[in-house]
Amino acid sequence: xxxxxxxxxxxxxVEVNALHAANLGIGAVVSFxxxxxxxxxxxxxxxxxxxxxxxxxEKALGKIVAQAHERWPLLGLEVLHxxxxxxxxxPIVFVGVTSAHRQAAxxxxxxxxDYLKTRAPFWKKENTAEGPRWVEGRASDQAAVERWK
Length: 149
Prior knowledge:
- By secondary structure, the chain is an alpha+beta fold.
- The strands form two sheets. Strands 3, 4, 6, 8 and 9 form a five-stranded antiparallel β-sheet that branches. Strands 1-5-7-2 form a four-stranded mixed β-sheet, with helices on both faces.
- The relative contact order is 0.23.
- It has four helices and nine strands.
- The longest helix has 18 residues, at 102-119.
- It has a single domain, classed as Molybdopterin biosynthesis MoaE subunit (Aldehyde Oxidoreductase, domain 3, Alpha-Beta Complex), CATH 3.90.1170.
């Protein structure tokens, strides 16, 4: 299990390969990579700034990861989330899950992303032509997390 919150860029391919190399008994690696888009809700986005509360954020991510491990037979799980200034096209988040079989890895990856979107203490501010604006949570994210209860 690895949780990283960092300002530095990362290479999703390197992250996936490292997960697999850690255990040759892995039968499945499922990953999700979220990127900064150049638009949101019909507005152009020139960049984004992500804030977090050090210590509290990692603790919240740890709880999400622990819940995934309790629900599925996982061999590994990594969550990497960027903070600070980001440009369109840059990766924001990486979730990588390994297991002996694919279904557990798919389910756990979806679970982690759904909970990360609704429970992790990150605050996003987009830079738009109209000026900076805070990104609000979406009802669809909240609805997605309800399926796991």
